[in-house]
Amino acid sequence: MTGPEHAETVHGPSVPTASVVLAGTLEAIGAGAYVVDEQGCIMAANTRAEQLLGRSTHDLIGHDAHDLLHRGPQGQDLPRTQCSMRQAFHAGRAAQADEDYFARADGTLLRISWLITPYDVGGRHAGTLVVFHTPDHEQAPAPLPDLATQPLSELHRLALLAETTAQLTSTLDVDEALRRLVTLVLPRLADWVVVDLITERDEVWRYVVVHAEGDTFTYREDLQGPMPPVPEESPMPLSRALRGVASNLAGPQTYQGAPDSGIAVEQRRLFDATGMHSAAIAPIRSTRAVLGALTLGRDENPAPFTPVDLPLIEDIARRAGLALDNARLYQRQRKVAETMQNHLLPQMPGVSGLEMTVRYLPAPDASQVGGDWYDAFPLSDASTALAIGDVVGHDLEAAAGMAQVRNMLRAYAWSQHEPPSRIVERLDEAIQHITDVDMATTIFARVEPAEDGHWQLSWTNAGHPPPLLISRDGLAEYLTDGHGILLGTQTGTRRPDATTQLPPGSTLVLYTDGLIEAPRRTLDEGLDRLRQHAAALAHRPLASFTDQLLRRVRPEGNDDDVAVLALRVPGS
Question: I need a surface site. Which of 8, 43, 227, 317 has the fewest CB within 10 A?
């Protein structure tokens, strides 16, 4: 479930599995190709690899590539210490070999040439791309060229494009996509990279100007910033690229004449400041529009760009355009979702003698709205209502259902002076007939002053994780009474109530299941983790308590949204 920034703490797409994404990417490579994970096990392979090896994807994925494929010239098992591919894999570096042998499924040997390179498979995990082919006419491929001074071979070109696709399509953040683009082209293709983007308001902005000195990148912020508008008829290379007309070569002499536009003036300044003697400029396009232009430049490398270089740069710019367009669409959707969620989740009321704080953390890999919710509001009898819930779903429909359930609960709680159980029974009867909600969980509670100056909590639980009560001395217990079946089951059973005293200085925590549930972890493990950390944080101010609890307890890689409502009663 998802949602946007709300209250004081919020952390910021659903994606296919890594093997599916990688397999689609590898199909663009004309040679055999597969990707291995950090342990050397095959994650994905393309159709050409299946054909060359006589093995299906099912026979490849999950197997150690060395053990399954690598052989000596006579077909013998190849010790790992004698395998040059394995050594380069462990060193995390690019390498190639002119002659090696793979074992086919039928036991025959396949003489190959191969190239490997580190490969970003998304998330926090690194991978390695292996591209291989059978040498034509028993001729081994040429040695690995100096990529910055010689044209790329077809094998290296395909590998670079596959890596570009994988890296740029695995992020939905514009800044991160641009950073990855820089590392892909520098220094192997150029000494400088410049990215000009057209904003959604049709303004041109020079977002990136980076120089590579070996492996050190220098960002020239003094050359970045707003640019003049795109001229409609200018024949100059950058102007043509920003109109999506064509790719072009350029040099300092290109802009030495009388400028025909403000962009030409900025280009002269760029060449003067960078010392570039040669540049290749390509449009950055999406399927819908021209998004900007990619410029690769050389200053230290004496070889000028030639027309032969343009198709590769165009392919890279095209992939960058698709990635940037996806990132912009995602950010636009996220902004709409954040606005919607901010209107759906309420502000907390001020209650004399009580502290309350709420947090909502959206799911990181969804549309930023979801069905988790919280609420607190005063009742006509001077008590305060508390609620937390979870409507099944991870989309706008779930968010709309959440708003319906929350508003109906508010109406019943205000108008009906009845125990929490009866309020939730009325809610359950109503949602079956007048909403689109299939199932939901909720806790509805009332907190009110007791006669002895303490505070009393009464509640009912409809299939939700139990509230957690922590004393100011760090004793933590779950309030498991008052538990009934979730909403929407249409069983018609009566719901139980429960009541307890809230000790002076104690803290009550209501939360949704995204805080405690995680793959390969039992629910009891999640509950124990929450209780342990809540007890350790009992002495913290309430805002700090809640922030630290979320930071410590929310499972790493959690794909669900989380809502938390924390309440603290005064001390003696």
Answer: 8
Bridge partners (DSSP) listed for residue 310:
none
SS3 state at 211: strand
Single-letter amino acid code for the residue at 154: E
537 neighbors 549 (Cβ within 8 angstroms): yes
Task: Judge residue 372's burial from the number of C-beta atoms within 10 Å of its C-beta, 0-12 exposed, 13-18 middle, 19 or more buried.
Answer: buried
Tell me the backbone φ, ψ of residue 340, rounded to 5 degrees.
-65, -45
E-state strands within 367-497: 372-378, 384-391, 440-449, 455-462, 468-470, 476-478, 483-484
Q: What would the pLDDT profile of 123-175 be if each residue is shown by its tens digit?
A: 556 788 899 988 653 333 333 344 444 556 666 777 788 778 878 877 888 88
The total number of residues shown for the chain amounts to 572
Q: Exposed, middle or buried by CB within 10 Å (0-12, 13-18, 19+), for 481?
A: middle
Farthest-apart Cα atoms in the chain, separation? 96
Q: How far apart are CA 318 and CA 323, in angstroms?
A: 9
Beta strands in 168-298 (DSSP E): 192-198, 204-213, 216-219, 225-227, 248-250, 278-285, 290-298
Structure tokens at 567: 């309440």
> What's the pTM?
0.51
Query: CA-CA distance, 279 to 194, in Å (whole number)?
Result: 10
Single-letter residue type at 531: R
The DSSP annotation for 460-484 comes to EEESPPPPEEE-TTS-EEE--TTEE
Q: Is the pLDDT of residue 15 over 50?
A: no
Q: For residues 152-180, b (16+ Cβ closer than 10 Å) or e, as one string?
A: bbebbbbbbbbbbbbbbbbbbebeebbbb
Residue 568: both structure tokens together: 């603290």
- Residue whose entry in the numeric block shows the structure tokens 């890596």: 163
**Quick check: 177 pLDDT over 80?**
yes
Identify whether the C-beta of residue 261 lies closer than 8 Å to the C-beta of residue 272. no
Q: How many CA atoms lie within 13 A of 424 on its CB side?
A: 34
Local structure of 343: helix, strand or coil: helix
Identity (one letter) of the amino acid at 337? A
As a whole number of Å, the end-to-end CA separation of the chain is 39
Structure tokens given for 151: 């044209």
Helix count and strand count (H, E) for the chain? 14, 25
Would you place residue 402 in the very low, low, confident or very high pLDDT band (cuts 50, 70, 90)? confident
C-alpha pair distances (Å), 354 with each of 218, 367, 508, 509, 547: 53, 34, 11, 13, 18
Rg (CA), the chain: 31
CA-closest candidate to residue 25, choices 189, 159, 175, 147: 159
